């Protein structure tokens, strides 16, 4: 429910709630909805939730401040690196991607205050230890089809250079390798090789999103690949490439 | 008389006749005997002695007195007996007399029947209908049929005789057609069923096997043309036969037998016959044979479509060879002329031999369209052909001749799929023609433009027309320039400037070139003049497209006027101040790009009869270490020597690649515009529909490649003009 679709009175309530509790907009809406838009009930709801409390918000602020840049209101590369350290994960670990997704991070290796705090709240943790504990369940989210698709599509925007419309090939390949390590795709190596040999240019959003469809619906032997399927031309060329090189039999 | 009592009434009753007045049975018998006798007499040709009136009355009385049945049965029996006798006499006839006897007896029988019917008319009208018996005439025919025609001795003999006669006539003998006529008419009179069952059906079967045999024989020994002549002859014979002595209804049946046996069954063998089949006839322009083949094949199912298919595949094959043969491709004008000749040849065949059959015309068109587009240089070559014609080929031709030739070229143009490639080349060639002043007739040029406009619309020709306008305007400008600036220019070189509007003319990069100082001066004067009257414009000298006329004096004082390109002029003018120059010096002085400079020097120093320069060493090719000298010893029979003109030529490989690339680049925005147009009106459309709609919209100019269309769609998605549907990948949506 988007805030601007609410009536004036409701909006005011949300603002009030957020100011008093320090909670995020998302949490505020959740609480108010649960209490049928009665502030008192919302407060009850909020404070009865074990995960979220005013103290928590402060702790989250503290966490943020620990990692943020000294002279900017952002967590940047150094902070992220430190965070990974504290979590005992490799910065390349895919769980960081999942976390970034929860944070709705706009750009790779950067978190704004809102993104960081809001993300941790929606994960439901307020300390490094709790986050560390949550890591396995976060990883498990990749197994969910629906969530995987959302994370996959999120990755395109997130991994882009600022101001660019398309994804650089190198980054794209890196991301694909990361993502498809979780969801095995036998043609992954051929795909990356093909792109480097034949394409050597950036990847458009359309190609990115359609690739997942391709991975999910077309079997590795291409037995159900349909030439009339309106696949992006790059995927058509990939199929040609596979056949030319004998990796797959022509029907 | 006793008196006395009252008078008694007498009752009179009038009652109907109670007792029957019977005709004496003996009377009936007697009457019948009279009639019976009459019948015999009639058959014996003794009718003259009989009294019609008496016989009629006798018959009448019999029927009146209820003896109709006796009369009828009597008639029937008498006639039957009579016919049995007749049958014997017919059977006894020998050989050829059989038919005559049969015919004669038939005539007799008919006459007799007529008379008998007249005599018994009352019975025919009264007794016969009420008792539902066959009328007399019909009875007579039926009896004839049953006892004569269907008599076992006569039946098969009759059929065999008839068929034998027909066979003999087919083999060349003369037979008695009148007699045949009479017999077949007899069969028809007996009823169509009799004619069909007892004659026609067996006739058709026998004919079928006859023609089957004959056709087999012919096809082994005749070539196609002769075979068809024979078949045609047989067909005509049969039609004539029917008209002379068979029933008209048999014509369609017998002709279809002949068509089937002689033509349909051998169709493929005939068409593909080695050395004489359809293809050979086409090659040798055998109009008569082709016309005959067409007329005959038309009669059988799939006949014409077989001819058409063979012709089409022959045309496609020949055409394909023509356009892919490297020898032929060396001379573009010859190449196109060859195509035109082929078209003319086959047009004539279709018109003279195939009666202008539209389906054949269409087959011809589709074949040409197929193979012309197999060679992707066709558009270029056709433009070169037109260039050649407009440059010199049409010299001295009348206006009608010009129209005819241009119309034929337009026909070829219509077959092109890549009309936009043609447009590019035509523009280039036209530019060269206009600038070198080498066009045979302005009217012819304009006529061609009009034809292109009619075919392709205004946009196709607007730029071309712009080029003509520029030429005219330039003329006016030059006149004005000289009028106004005459004294200022004095004795300097005479300048003739063509001012070209950038958008209309083929884009050329204008490489650097240092003009000789004398030329530069007058050029600058012109530039000043022009910009004075047309402010806000920019002029760039196109030194690679100009020409110059130079007066040169050689060693022994011979004067010649040299007609050269601008580049060549720049080079030659250098020799006014030096006798010899190295390649490097020339390059430095003129700044002409290397490849052009080499070509230019080659035409000045290495071509016999035009070598106004001498090269050391005397090799054929220009190398950067060569030195050039003014050739004092140059001679030529002509006072005016032409050295190098900017003539339109077949492009070299790299040039061709470049043009092709430019065409492909031009096509991309056109495809995108079409996609956007379509999506704007349809809002939501699936991929395949977009491809087919785009193809349809652009086919007047070129055939878009589906892969290119797909790439353009993706580019439009990238630029957020379109989006894919979230659920169905094949569906696209227009984003306003």
TrEMBL record, chain A:
Pfam family, one: Cullin_binding
Domain DCUN1: 55-243
CDD domains hit by this protein: UBA_DCNL
Example GO BP: protein neddylation
Alphabetized UniProt keyword annotations: Ubl conjugation pathway
Gene Ontology cellular component list: ubiquitin ligase complex
GO molecular function, one term: ubiquitin conjugating enzyme binding
Its biological purpose: Neddylation of cullins play an essential role in the regulation of SCF-type complexes activity.
Protein name: Defective in cullin neddylation protein
Organism in which the protein naturally occurs: Eragrostis curvula
UniProtKB/TrEMBL annotation, chain B:
Alphabetical GO biological process terms: ubiquitin-dependent protein catabolic process
The UniProt record lists the keyword Aminoacyl-tRNA synthetase: no
InterPro entries: Cullin, Cullin-like_AB, Cullin_homology, Cullin_homology_sf, Cullin_N, Cullin_neddylation_domain, Cullin_repeat-like_dom_sf, WH-like_DNA-bd_sf
Keyword Disulfide bond set for record: no
GO molecular function, one term: ubiquitin protein ligase binding
Residue span, Cullin family profile domain: 377-605
UniProt keyword list: Isopeptide bond, Ubl conjugation, Ubl conjugation pathway
Family of the protein in this entry: Belongs to the cullin family.
Name of the featured protein: Cullin family profile domain-containing protein
Phylogenetic lineage: Eukaryota, Viridiplantae, Streptophyta, Embryophyta, Tracheophyta
């Amino acid at each position: 429910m988007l805030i601007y679709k609410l009536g004036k009175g409701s909006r005011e309530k949300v603002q009030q709630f957020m100011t008093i509790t320090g909670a995020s907009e998302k949490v505020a809406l959740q609480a108010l909805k649960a209490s049928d838009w009665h502030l008192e009930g919302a407060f009850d709801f909020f404070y009865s939730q074990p995960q979220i409390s005013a103290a928590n918000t402060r702790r989250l602020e503290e966490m943020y401040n620990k990692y943020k840049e000294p002279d900017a209101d952002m967590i940047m590369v150094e902070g992220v690196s430190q965070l990974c350290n504290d979590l005992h994960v490799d910065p390349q670990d895919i769980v960081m991607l999942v976390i970034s997704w929860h944070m709705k991070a706009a750009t790779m290796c950067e978190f704004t205050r809102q993104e960081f705090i809001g993300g941790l709240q929606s994960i439901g943790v307020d300390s490094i230890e709790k986050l560390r504990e949550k890591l396995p369940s976060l990883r498990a989210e990749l197994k969910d089809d629906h969530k995987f698709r959302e994370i996959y599509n999120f990755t395109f925007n997130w991994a882009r250079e600022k101001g660019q419309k398309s994804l650089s090939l190198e980054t794209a390949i890196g991301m694909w390798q990361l993502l498809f390590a979780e969801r095995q795709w036998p043609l992954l190596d051929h795909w990356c090789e093909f792109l480097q040999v034949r394409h050597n240019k950036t990847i458009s959003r359309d190609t990115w999103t359609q690739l997942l469809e391709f991975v999910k619906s077309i079997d590795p032997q291409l037995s159900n690949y349909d030439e009339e399927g309106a696949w992006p031309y790059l995927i058509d060329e990939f199929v040609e490439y596979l056949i030319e090189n004998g990796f797959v039999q022509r029907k | 008389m006793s008196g006395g009592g009252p008078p008694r009434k007498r009752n009179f009753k009038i009652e109907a006749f109670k007792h029957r007045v019977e005709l004496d049975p003996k009377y009936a018998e007697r009457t019948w005997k009279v009639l019976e006798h009459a019948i015999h007499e009639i058959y014996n040709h003794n009718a003259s002695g009989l009294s019609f009136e008496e016989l009629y009355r006798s018959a009448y009385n019999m029927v009146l007195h209820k003896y109709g049945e006796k009369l009828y049965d009597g008639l029937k029996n008498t006639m039957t007996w009579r016919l049995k006798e007749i049958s014997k006499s017919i059977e006894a006839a020998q050989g050829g007399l059989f038919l005559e006897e049969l015919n004669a007896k038939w005539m007799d029988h008919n006459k007799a029947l007529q008379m008998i019917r007249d005599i018994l008319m009352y019975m025919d009208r009264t007794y016969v209908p009420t008792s539902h018996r066959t009328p007399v005439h019909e009875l007579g025919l039926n009896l004839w049929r049953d006892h004569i025609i269907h008599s076992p001795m006569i039946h098969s003999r009759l059929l065999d005789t008839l068929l034998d006669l027909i066979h003999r006539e087919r083999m060349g003998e003369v037979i008695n057609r009148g007699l045949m006529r009479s017999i077949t008419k007899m069969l028809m009179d007996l009823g169509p069923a009799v004619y069909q069952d007892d004659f026609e059906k067996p006739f058709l079967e026998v004919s079928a096997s006859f023609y089957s045999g004959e056709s087999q024989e012919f096809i082994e020994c005749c070539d196609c043309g002769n075979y068809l002549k024979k078949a045609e002859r047989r067909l005509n014979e049969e039609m004539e036969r029917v008209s002379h002595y068979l029933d008209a209804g048999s014509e369609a049946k017998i002709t279809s037998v002949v068509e089937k046996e002689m033509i349909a069954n051998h169709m493929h063998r005939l068409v593909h016959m080695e050395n004489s089949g359809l293809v050979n006839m086409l090659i040798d322009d055998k109009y008569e044979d082709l016309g005959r083949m067409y007329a005959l094949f038309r009669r059988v199912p799939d006949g014409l479509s077989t001819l058409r298919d063979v012709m089409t595949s022959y045309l496609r094959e020949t055409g394909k060879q023509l356009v892919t043969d490297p020898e032929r491709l060396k001379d573009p004008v010859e190449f196109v002329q060859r195509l035109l000749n082929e078209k003319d040849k086959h047009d004539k065949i279709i018109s003279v031999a195939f009666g202008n059959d539209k389906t054949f015309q269409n087959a011809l068109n589709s074949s040409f369209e197929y193979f012309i587009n197999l060679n992707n240089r066709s558009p270029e070559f056709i433009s070169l052909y037109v260039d050649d014609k407009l440059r010199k080929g049409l010299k001295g031709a009348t206006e009608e001749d010009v129209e005819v030739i241009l119309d034929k070229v337009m026909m070829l143009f219509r077959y092109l799929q890549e009309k936009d490639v043609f447009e590019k080349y035509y523009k280039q060639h036209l530019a060269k023609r206009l600038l070198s002043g080498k066009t045979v007739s302005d009217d012819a040029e304009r006529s061609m433009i009009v034809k292109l406009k009619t075919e392709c619309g205004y946009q196709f020709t607007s730029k071309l027309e712009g080029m003509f306008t520029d030429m005219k305007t330039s003329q006016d400008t030059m006149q004005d320039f000289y009028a106004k600036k005459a004294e200022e220019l004095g004795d300097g070189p005479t300048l003739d400037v063509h001012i070209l509007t950038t958008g209309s003319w083929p884009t050329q990069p204008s490489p650097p070139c240092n003009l000789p100082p004398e030329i530069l001066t007058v050029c600058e004067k012109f530039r000043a003049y022009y910009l004075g009257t047309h402010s806000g414009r920019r002029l760039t000298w196109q030194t690679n497209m100009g020409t110059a006329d130079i007066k040169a004096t050689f060693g022994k004082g011979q004067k010649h006027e040299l007609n050269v390109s601008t580049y060549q002029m720049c080079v030659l003018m250098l020799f006014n101040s030096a006798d010899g120059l190295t390649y490097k010096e020339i390059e430095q002085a003129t700044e002409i790009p290397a490849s052009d400079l080499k070509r230019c020097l080659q035409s000045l120093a290495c071509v016999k009869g035009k070598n106004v320069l001498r090269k050391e060493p005397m090799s054929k090719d220009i190398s950067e270490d060569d030195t050039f000298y003014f050739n004092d010893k140059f001679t030529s029979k002509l006072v005016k020597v032409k050295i190098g003109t900017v003539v339109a030529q077949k492009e070299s490989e790299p040039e061709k690649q470049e043009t092709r690339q430019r065409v492909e680049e031009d096509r991309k925005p056109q495809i995108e515009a079409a996609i956007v147009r379509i999506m704007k009106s349809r809002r939501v459309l699936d991929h395949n529909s977009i491809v087919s709609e785009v193809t349809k919209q652009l086919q007047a100019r070129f055939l878009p490649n589906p892969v290119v269309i797909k790439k353009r769609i993706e580019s439009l998605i990238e630029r957020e003009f379109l989006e894919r549907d979230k659920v169905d990948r094949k569906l696209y949506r227009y984003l306003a």
